[in-house]
């Protein structure tokens, strides 16, 4: 079992920046990848970014490329999402996802609200 604790959401004006954090904990867990998804009211959950834990590999959704950066701290089992040039359409609940293996089931965080005002 993996527990995920997210932090860093909040209210920011358009053009501003926020940093989200997600810390993973549990007994004897492994990590293949961690990532972020988001869900706006009335919309489906959308892929934002992910990072492979043991390799220098990241992936981003088209809507955030060039504005968001995902990074990790292996020692802290923590993944970060630096969000710059925020737009009102980035407003959503952001969820952290942890995958222990490439094909295994994922664990999800409780979500953190990001609101971008125009």
The major pleated sheet works out as: 7 strands, mixed
Instruction: Choose one word for the global shape.
Output: globular
End-to-end separation in angstroms reads 40 Å
Give the uncertain stretches in residue-range form: none
Helix content: under 10%
Please state the CA-atom Rg, rounded to the nearest Å: 14 Å
**Beta-strand content bin:** over 45%
Number of strands: 11
User: Helices and strands: which structural class?
Assistant: mainly beta
* Average pLDDT rating: 95
- State the helix count: 0
Query: What is the succession of H and E elements?
Result: EEEEEEEEEEE
What do these coordinates show?
The chain is globular, with a radius of gyration of 14 Å. The chain is an all-beta fold and 118 residues long. β4 (33-39) and β5 (46-52) form a beta hairpin. It has strands at residues 2-7, 10-13, 18-26, 33-39, 46-52, 58-60, 68-73, 78-83, 92-99, 107-108, 112-117. It starts with a strand and ends with a strand. 30% of the residues are buried.
